[in-house]
Design brief:
Elements: H1 32-44, E1 48-60, E2 63-70, E3 79-82, E4 86-93, E5 101-104, E6 128-134, E7 139-145, E8 162-168, E9 178-187, E10 190-192, H2 194-197, E11 208-210, E12 213-216, E13 227-229, E14 234-241, E15 248-252, E16 257-262, E17 265-273, E18 276-278, E19 283-289, E20 295-300, H3 303-308, E21 311-316, E22 349-358, E23 367-370, E24 382-384, E25 389-397, E26 402-406, E27 411-416, E28 419-426, E29 428-431, E30 436-442, E31 449-453, H4 456-460, E32 464-469
Parallel strand pairs: 1-4, 3-8, 9-14, 13-21, 22-25, 24-32
Antiparallel strand pairs: 1-2, 4-6, 5-7, 7-8, 9-12, 10-11, 14-19, 15-18, 15-20, 16-17, 16-19, 20-21, 22-23, 25-30, 26-29, 26-31, 27-28, 27-30, 31-32
The chain binds copper (II) ion (CU).
Residues 400, 402, 453, 455, 458, 463 line the site of copper (II) ion.
Length: 471
């Protein structure tokens, strides 16, 4: 096992980074007795190490956030693995609260999924926990804390506890010239009574979370290194909404984006769009033809988001000048345009799910119900039998968005409102306010699986249940 000490920058120089991620294959350069010794060490060394620890994150000069992160970086280290490979990951917890890491979008056994509600072990404060699993399916996955934050806005996804996990397909077509990973996040959360700052929600609405700053990766818009491109390149951007509760609509000014995958899964109909909507936890892989030389802003469509820092600068070689912004003509988002009309198998069972809000009132916290029940009374939300296909017919009877996430399974979006569709495979689907969505999944991975809203506050306030298997 090798150890690297990475040159620290001012914002994280106090963080001991000796436990930086160590990739497999380090024994390849050894020989003879050295090799034997190395092999013995490798037998017990993990493929990856993640250390949860406090982090002082410098989003911009003078703008330092006290948060938590993995291995001293935000996002955490990129984990890139060939599909099907068995990996071991040691998670060390150098904080004073127990935590856990979920491998989002992967099909892994419940005990390895990283959700305590499914029986995965937590990583105790001061302790280390090894997770071992085969990595599948291919695509843009990610990992993040699955701790409960509740009213504590320093924890779980309010912090910098997330990273990309890219699962490479056996044969990567690689039809792009450059790959850029961008994780959007909002920082400095606070609880706010919306009634106190504007009129709008009904007066019985409870507290909401608002933010003071935002970033792409670890920097606010205008303060990081630009994304450097050349005219004629095809650039693959892997976009992730790693915010705890905020939606984001992202625009690369002056350019169109061709959506090739949603939540890491290739879409049947690639479409060129001016704006990509991502609810919390959603990903989009987009390819951009770099055909408008200049210096451009890639950021949130809302002025407020860009002002907070949600974005980065894309700079062509030899281009100069201030970054340009241009609002798109059309920013509507519709999952069904990426689908097709292939026949969808009839489900073996159709299950209605109704999501409702129990307003917390001014100064209180809202609660959420699934078919009238909140977590933990939803431990038996849905019972399935292996091999059967289920259709979840979901109704959002609230004025809030809900990115609904199913663990350990990939589902097919089959209807959005009145529009039938097929072939769009996801692990998180956003339900807009007062909407209906239908998703189909095959019960092909026995064990308990969480179904929950990925809005951290909603999840913590009851919007969670378990899909169980019979027999
Ligand atoms: Cu929600």
């Amino acid at each position: 096992m090798t150890t690297s000490r990475v040159t620290s920058n001012a914002s994280s120089s106090w963080v001991d980074r000796r436990e930086f991620v160590v990739g497999a294959g380090a024994a390849g350069i050894a020989s003879g007795a050295v090799l034997a010794k190395a092999c013995a060490q490798m037998a017990s060394a993990p493929d990856y190490s993640l250390r949860i620890a406090p982090l002082r994150l410098e989003l911009a000069p003078g703008k330092v956030i006290d948060t938590f992160g993995y291995n001293g970086t935000v996002p955490g280290p990129l984990i890139r693995v060939r599909e099907g490979r068995q990996v071991s990951i040691d998670i060390r917890n150098d904080t004073d609260i127990d935590d856990i890491i979920h491998w989002h979008g992967l099909k892994v056994p419940a005990a390895s999924d990283g959700a305590m509600e499914e029986g995965s072990p937590m990583v105790e404060r001061g302790g280390t926990q090894r997770y071992t699993f085969a990595v599948q399916p291919a695509g843009t996955r990610w990992y993040h804390s699955h701790d409960v934050a509740g009213t504590d806005l320093t924890r779980s996804l309010y912090a910098g506890l997330y990273g990309f996990l890219i699962v490479e397909p056996p044969n990567d077509p690689g039809r792009y010239d450059q790959e850029v990973l961008l994780a959007g996040h909002h920082w400095e959360p606070r609880w706010v009574s919306m009634q106190d700052i504007r009129q709008g929600p009904p007066p019985d609405n409870g507290l909401e979370v608002l933010y003071a700053s935002a970033s792409f990766n670890d920097r606010m818009l205008g303060h990081g290194e630009p994304v450097r491109v050349r005219e004629g390149q095809r650039v693959l951007f892997r976009l992730l909404n790693a915010s705890a509760t905020q939606n984001m609509t992202l625009v690369l000014a002056g350019h169109r984006m061709t959506v090739v995958a949603l939540d890491g899964n290739p879409v049947p109909s690639r479409q060129s769009v001016e704006a990509v909507f991502l609810a919390p936890a959603e990903r989009a892989d987009v390819v951009v033809e770099m055909n408008r030389p200049g210096v451009w802003i890639f950021g949130g469509i809302r002025d407020e988001d860009r002002r907070m820092g949600l974005g980065t600068v894309v700079e062509y070689a030899n281009a100069r000048g201030e970054p340009q912004w241009a609002a798109p003509a059309n920013s509507a988002w519709d999952y069904t345009i990426f689908g097709d009309q292939r026949p969808v198998p009839a489900p073996d069972e159709r299950i209605e799910l109704l999501f409702e809000k129990v307003p917390g009132g001014r100064g209180g916290y809202n609660r959420w119900t699934l078919n009238g029940q909140s977590w933990p009374n939803t431990r038996q939300l849905i019972a399935t039998e292996p091999g059967r296909r289920y259709r979840l017919a979901m109704t959002n009877k609230s004025g809030d968005n809900h990115p609904v996430h199913l663990h350990r399974h990939t589902f097919e979006v089959t209807k959005v409102g009145d529009k039938a569709t097929a072939g769009v495979m996801k692990d998180t689907v956003n339900m807009t306010r007062f909407s209906t969505v239908e998703i189909d999944f095959v019960a092909d991975d026995p064990g308990p699986s969480l179904l929950h809203c990925h809005h951290q506050d909603h999840q913590d306030e009851g919007f969670m249940g378990v899909v169980t298997y019979l027999g």
